Amino acid sequence: MRSAVGAAVRRTPHQPSEFEQDGQREQRARRILQVAVAATAPRHDWTREEIAAIYYRPLMELAYQAAKVHRRFHDPSEVQLCTLMNIKTGGCSEDCSYCAQSTRYQDGTGLEAKRVESVESVLAAARVAKEKGSTRFCMGAAWRDMRGRKNSLRNIKAMVTGVRALDMEVCVTLGMIDDEQAKELKEAGLTAYNHNVDTSREFYPSVISTRTYDERLKTLGHVRDAGINSFPVNALVPIKGTPLGDRTPIEFTSMLRTIAAARILMPATIIRIAAGRKTMAEEQQALCFMAGANAIFTGEKMLTTECNGWDEDAAMFGRWGLEPMKSFQKAAQPEQGLAGDVAGLA
Ligand code: SF4
């Protein structure tokens, strides 16, 4: 057996031992977190090393520090209520392994493709959402991109303008868009464009083969330049009939760690718990709010999956002393940073 003394003899005098290296790494990680938590303004120059150092801090410490940052930049009792409507269901040409809306998995999921909703039906749904207390209305369309969809873009801009006229914030998720389309949507009144990174660069080809991670980043660049990006955190909701339908959902601690790290890295941004909230216990949701999440999707459905309902969320808010955030309250602090997720929806 190799002894510690024997190992020490073979080192040159100035070479730190593994033990010393671990100690130095730990000290550096603590220092990175300390500096990040002391911030009084958002930063946009994080390195991968800094992000990893923060993300892997002991979870209780990470959540506590994130809660401190959250209180400096936001009212911790306020949570934004968003309602998501599917304005074009199914029939999508993409092959995202987690999604029921791809035509490739239609036989297994049994989901029927529908035509695009009319402007009137979208505005009627937005009015219901507003009556129920939502202050942001989001619209999702199941397609790859907006190329050659001039009529659709015109209708969507009418929906955006109509929802804004109800004094609600408006978000859309329409797949990949170019810089012109991002600007047009912004000019029509769009508050935020949701475009998830789906998964990491390394995993991308095993989750989606019909587009690349870089194409995803390109759209994120366009929406960031237009000042309309958003930060949802999604956990995979395994849907029967899709290739990921049998996967075990990720552990709650990964969700909490992601939210806490995001709060420290993007202190002024609204962080939305998106897919995966339906299966969280109320206490788990409360931990997420404590660690920096301050928006949720609420209503009848989240695209093709179940969503926590308005009444259920109102009762939860009452028990925990939370209040719905008013619309446009955060308008002076544009959502920015890395739009991303654990694994999610288009
Ligand atoms: S996630 Fe979006 S792009 Fe992918 S299959 Fe579903 S609807 Fe299409």
UniProtKB/TrEMBL annotation:
Residues 77-277 form the Radical SAM core domain. Belongs to the radical SAM superfamily. Biotin synthase family. GO terms for cellular component: mitochondrion. SMART domains: BATS (SM00876), Elp3 (SM00729). SUPFAM superfamilies: Radical SAM enzymes (SSF102114). This is biotin synthase. Coiled coil: none annotated. [4Fe-4S] cluster binds at residues 92, 96, 99. Its cofactor is [2Fe-2S] cluster; [4Fe-4S] cluster. GO terms for biological process: biotin biosynthetic process. Pathway: Cofactor biosynthesis; biotin biosynthesis; biotin from 7,8-diaminononanoate: step 2/2. [2Fe-2S] cluster binds at residues 138, 171, 272. One of its GO terms (molecular function) is 2 iron, 2 sulfur cluster binding. It comes from the Eukaryota. Residues 1-26 are annotated as: Disordered. Its EC number is 2.8.1.6. InterPro entries: Aldolase_TIM (IPR013785), BATS_dom (IPR010722), Biotin_synth/BioAB (IPR002684), Biotin_synthase (IPR024177), Elp3/MiaA/NifB-like_rSAM (IPR006638), rSAM (IPR007197), rSAM_sf (IPR058240). Binds 1 [2Fe-2S] cluster. The cluster is coordinated with 3 cysteines and 1 arginine. Keywords: 2Fe-2S, 4Fe-4S, Biotin biosynthesis, Iron, Iron-sulfur, Metal-binding, Mitochondrion, S-adenosyl-L-methionine, Transferase. It holds the Pfam family BATS.
